[in-house]
């Protein structure tokens, strides 16, 4: 059976001005992944890695310059906005700042009913019942129905953002940094809520975050992005147990734990420097200016040659696979064959 969401070779370009020149650059540069039904994929990277642009392109807020996005087998990149409409219901976004997407003059009840009205679903009484049920499912209740956004804490507002996404009964939730603006203790509550909802409603997730601690608790697999490209894609167990890309290793070294009892694993080196700009990415491996291992790869390959993402490598765990874009992988394989 095909995946619920299939992204292949996705490229999203923007125009910008730099040093007085107009340029076009790829914020997302050849990204491919699947989200299987009922599974959660984490997309992780620093600011400028292109992860939010991936989300915006999937839901049609940005145009794909190249590549394919299939949802339930339907190609989305070529749809007109009218043709998009029936699919929009099935893919919902949860934003980092729910307050920005809520009208301060609109009650929460009205905000929850609104998507049902827009999509012409249910009668007024049924809409209210549905909105109340969804409020309850995110840990709020009928008392909150007639309240306004300013009456809620940050964590409660994110619960409302999730409720608003759920009211249309989507199959896929794309969560774009939904907890990064919250305190750590509240982050854990929202991540736990998303985990419960996933089990209860058979949801699939594309969960975008800038640190690995958040995705560890929710995601089955994780794709790590760096300057527009995926550099490592692995199951949760593989990624946290044995990260292979030097960038992933550096991200893990910086992980603050949501769970004070969580093992931090072997000591790893923090990444020095900043990620640079997608407007003018480094040659070869885009991570090479920051990579502590580039001198282990002969012939200056890291600076001159772009490492391809290795093909999926099956191993003894059925759902386990790993793809890594690093010359060290081929150097190590080549050395072990000799
Ligand atoms: Fe480091 Fe080279 Fe691997 Fe890039 S390809 S991550 S620079 S070792």
Could you explain how this protein is built, in words?
This protein has 338 residues and is an alpha/beta fold. It contains twelve helices and eleven strands. The chain has a seven-stranded mixed sheet, with helices on both faces. Helix 7 links the parallel strand 7 and strand 8. Helix 4 packs across helix 5 and helix 5 packs across helix 6. The chain is globular and about 70 Å long. The two termini are 40 Å apart. Iron/sulfur cluster binds next to helix 12.
Strand content: 15-25%
Alpha-carbon distance between the two ends: 40 Å
Mean pLDDT: 89
Order of strands across the main sheet: 6-7-8-3-9-10-11
Please provide the count of β strands. Answer: 11
Principal-axis shape equals globular
Main beta sheet strand tally, sense and closure: 7 strands, mixed
Nearest-angstrom radius of gyration?
A: 21 Å
Structural class: alpha/beta
Instruction: Determine the number of helices (DSSP H or I, runs of at least 4 residues).
Output: 12
Bound molecules: iron/sulfur cluster
Q: How is the quaternary structure best described? A: single chain
Helical content band = 25-40%
Order of SSEs: EEEHEEHEHHHHEHEHEEHHHEH
Q: Provide the low-confidence segments as ranges.
A: 260-265
């Amino acid at each position: 059976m095909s995946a619920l969401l299939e992204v292949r070779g996705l490229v999203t370009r923007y125009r910008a001005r730099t040093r007085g020149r107009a340029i076009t650059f790829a914020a997302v540069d050849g990204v491919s992944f699947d989200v299987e039904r009922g599974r959660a994929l984490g997309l992780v990277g620093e600011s400028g890695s292109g992860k939010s642009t991936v989300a915006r392109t999937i839901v049609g807020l940005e145009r794909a310059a190249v590549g394919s996005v299939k949802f339930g087998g339907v190609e989305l990149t070529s749809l007109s906005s009218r043709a998009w409409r029936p699919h929009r219901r099935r893919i919902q976004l949860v934003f980092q700042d729910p307050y920005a997407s809520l009208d301060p003059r609109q009650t929460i009840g009205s905000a929850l009913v609104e998507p049902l009205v827009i999509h012409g679903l249910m009668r007024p009484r049924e809409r209210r019942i549905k909105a109340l049920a969804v409020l309850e499912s995110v840990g709020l209740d009928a008392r909150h129905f007639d309240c306004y956004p300013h009456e809620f804490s940050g964590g409660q507002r994110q619960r409302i953002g999730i409720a608003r996404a759920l009211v249309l009964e989507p199959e896929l939730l794309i969560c774009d940094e939904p907890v990064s603006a919250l305190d750590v203790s509240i982050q854990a509550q929202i991540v736990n809520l998303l985990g419960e909802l996933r089990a209860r409603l058979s949801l699939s997730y594309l969960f975008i975050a800038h640190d690995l601690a958040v995705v560890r608790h929710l995601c089955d697999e994780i794709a790590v992005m760096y300057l527009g490209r995926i550099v490592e894609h692995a199951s949760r167990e593989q990624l946290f147990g044995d990260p292979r890309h030097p960038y992933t290793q550096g991200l893990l070294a910086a992980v603050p734990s949501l769970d004070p009892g969580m093992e931090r694993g072997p000591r790893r080196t923090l990444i020095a420097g900043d990620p640079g700009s997608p407007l003018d990415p480094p040659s070869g491996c885009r991570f090479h200016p920051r990579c502590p291992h580039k001198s282990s790869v002969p012939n200056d390959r890291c600076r001159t040659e772009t490492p391809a993402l290795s093909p999926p490598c099956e191993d003894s765990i059925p759902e386990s696979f790993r793809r890594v874009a690093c010359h060290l992988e081929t150097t190590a394989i080549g050395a072990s064959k000799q």
